[in-house]
């Protein structure tokens, strides 16, 4: 709480309604996500959950390959699975905030009709899951480097640039899903998981796009997540990164360029979809709809 008060008192925040809405929503989201357990138990959960999840994949890979964890393909699979934690956390976290406000706390009507930047509020609500997801990714990566001796060759500038663009694109996608959720009374609880599961298949998270049938491969090129995963692997593994024909013709910064353009387009789309959905939800009284979920 003290940290939030200090942030709220910063001149840039006090003078910007958008930043005030974002910071307040981030604090609220953190309280909701972390108040179910004592700090120590929450920390144990945050450490044990990602490690136990990734070990399932490691065991399956080891059985199939007779424990060939020293091969580049293992690092490709392991890092892709670890990084995908962020995709699931951010995409579902932002959209899930709409469901919580409407179905559980039943304050959506008050929030989305209040005189504040509700777009910034929705983004802020996803920050808590972003933090938890980032910690899980870091723990998983460190565990892989220590336990399986995955070699790192980090390009810091490339990694930072890819991370910023990747989080921006994921946040925009989360807002789009949240906006669609405002207008739906059915299947909204599975929307984030549905999209996240589809991206897991089509973005080369644990296998290259070359494995997919030729007619399905172009689908992967439509999502910025595909380029983010590829360039982040290269930023972390360097020359140790497995290269497949899918992106063999792309340089590292070429991938960044594609990711930047797609992120910008996705942000523009998210703004339009959000405004359209919010206006329709207000006009048709969908903000306080109850599905008894």
Report on the architecture of this protein:
Helix 4 packs across helix 5 and helix 5 (72-104) runs parallel beside helix 9 (156-182). The two termini are 31 Å apart. 39% of the residues are buried. By secondary structure, this protein is mainly alpha-helical. The protein is built from 13 helices and no strands. The protein has helices at 2-8, 11-14, 17-34, 39-65, 72-104, 108-112, 118-125, 127-148, 156-182, 188-202, 217-220, 224-237, 252-283. The mean pLDDT is 87.
Describe the global form.
Answer: globular
Major pleated sheet: none
Class based on secondary structure composition and strand pairing: mainly alpha
SSE sequence, one letter per element: HHHHHHHHHHHHH
Instruction: Report low-confidence residues grouped into runs of 5 or more.
Output: none
Q: Please count the beta strands (DSSP E, at least 2 residues each).
A: 0
Helical content band: over 70%
What separation lies between the terminal Cα atoms?
Answer: 31 Å
Radius of gyration, whole Å: 20 Å
Overall pLDDT score: 87
Amount of beta strand: under 5%
Number of helices: 13
């Amino acid at each position: 709480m003290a940290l939030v008060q200090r942030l709220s008192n910063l001149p840039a925040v006090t003078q910007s309604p958008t930043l005030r809405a974002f910071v307040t929503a981030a604090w609220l989201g953190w309280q909701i996500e972390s108040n179910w357990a004592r700090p120590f138990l929450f920390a144990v959960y945050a450490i044990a959950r990602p490690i136990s999840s990734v070990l399932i994949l490691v065991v399956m890979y080891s059985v199939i390959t007779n424990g060939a964890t020293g091969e580049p393909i293992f690092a490709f699979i392991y890092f892709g699975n670890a990084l995908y934690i962020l995709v699931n956390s951010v995409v579902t976290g932002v959209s899930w905030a709409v469901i919580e406000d409407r179905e559980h706390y039943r304050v959506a009507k008050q929030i989305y009709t209040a005189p504040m930047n509700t777009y910034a509020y929705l983004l802020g609500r996803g920050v808590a899951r972003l933090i938890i997801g980032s910690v899980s990714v870091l723990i998983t990566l460190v565990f892989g480097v220590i336990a399986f001796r995955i070699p790192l060759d980090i390009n810091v500038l490339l990694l930072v640039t890819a991370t910023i663009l990747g989080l921006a694109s994921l946040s925009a996608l989360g807002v789009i899903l949240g906006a669609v959720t405002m207008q739906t009374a059915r299947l909204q609880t599975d929307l984030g998981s549905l999209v996240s599961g589809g991206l897991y298949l089509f973005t080369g998270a644990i296998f290259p796009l070359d494995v997919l049938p030729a007619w399905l491969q172009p689908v992967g090129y439509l999502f910025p997540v595909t380029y983010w995963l590829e360039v982040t692997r290269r930023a972390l593994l360097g020359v140790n990164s497995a290269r497949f024909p899918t992106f063999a013709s792309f340089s590292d910064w070429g991938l960044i360029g594609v990711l930047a353009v797609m992120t910008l387009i996705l942000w523009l789309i998210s703004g339009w979809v959000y405004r359209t959905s919010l206006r329709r939800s207000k006009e048709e009284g969908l903000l306080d709809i109850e599905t008894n979920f």
